[in-house]
Structure formats: structure tokens, C-alpha cells
Specification:
about 140 residues; alpha+beta; Pnp Oxidase, Chain A; 4-stranded antiparallel sheet; globular; disordered N terminus; FMN binding; Split_barrel_FMN-bd
């Protein structure tokens, strides 16, 4: 299995060998969070700890280990886009794990294309199958 963000940390999962093999056959859904900084820099970061909790009203949450560019951009703009990563985009997903300077365009670094979002300033990933533009309501430290 390739070393992608989706495949890291499978060792201590507590699954029996048969369960681990079954789990490997099912994709881990990775939320690719795209944001735009206050000065217009684009950020794209993978988050495996994200979920949609409701549909009326829609509630989306993700968890960051540390205060990263994504969190700073959400705090400053109040917006982000949840893009979904797929197996076909595993190479780009791996590239998006790189620690780049906050001034670098991470979508450009991965070779992915952007599309304008309909309701928020942050762009979405053109190659991604599903997206949701989100207006942030709260940040918790």
C-alpha cells in the first residue's frame, strides 16, 4: 500500500489480521480543506479527522493537530471549502502533505486545478468529486 496520508498509522489499530485486510479494501475519506489567506494565498491541506454532522442545517467539522495555516485562514476569513480526495488523486494527496511556506500555493504545488466557489472566496479542487463551501461559525482551541 502506498505511503499516503490515508494509509499512515494503520499499525496500532487493534484489528485482527482479517479485519485489517478488510479495512484496507475500503477507502478512508480524506477531507481536503482549501482556504484563502487574508492576502490571497491559497492553502490546501488533508484532514482525515473531518465529518458532516447534520444536513439541516449542514454542520461540517474538522480537527487540526496544531494551529496551522488552514486554521489561521479560517479564523481570518471565516470560510473554507471541503473537497474530497479519492484514490485516483493519491499522488496529489501525498504532495499536499508537504509542509510549505504559508506564501506558497499548495494547489499549484500539487498540480491540481482550481475552480471558483459559488458562495465563498476559497477555491475548490476541480478534480475532486464533491465539495462544500463552508462559512465558519466557531473555532475551538
Amino acid at each position: 500500500m502506498p505511503d499516503t496520508c490515508a494509509s499512515r498509522g494503520q499499525g496500532g489499530d487493534g484489528l485482527a489480521d482479517g479485519g485489517r485486510e478488510a479495512a484496507r479494501e475500503h477507502a478512508v475519506v480524506i477531507g481536503w480543506i482549501s482556504t484563502r489567506s487574508a492576502v490571497g494565498h491559497i492553502n490546501l491541506a488533508p484532514y482525515s479527522f473531518f465529518n458532516v454532522f447534520n444536513y439541516k442545517p449542514p454542520i461540517v467539522a474538522f480537527s487540526s493537530v496544531g494551529w496551522k495555516d488552514t486554521i489561521c485562514n479560517v479564523r481570518d476569513s471565516g470560510e473554507f471549502v471541503v473537497n474530497l480526495a479519492t484514490r485516483a488523486l493519491a499522488e496529489q494527496l501525498n504532495l499536499s502533505c508537504a509542509e510549505l511556506a504559508s506564501t506558497e500555493d499548495e494547489l499549484g504545488f500539487t498540480g491540481l486545478d482550481t475552480l471558483a466557489s459559488q458562495y465563498v472566496a476559497a477555491p475548490r479542487v476541480r478534480q475532486g468529486p464533491r465539495v462544500s463551501g463552508v462559512q465558519a461559525d466557531a473555532l475551538a482551541a
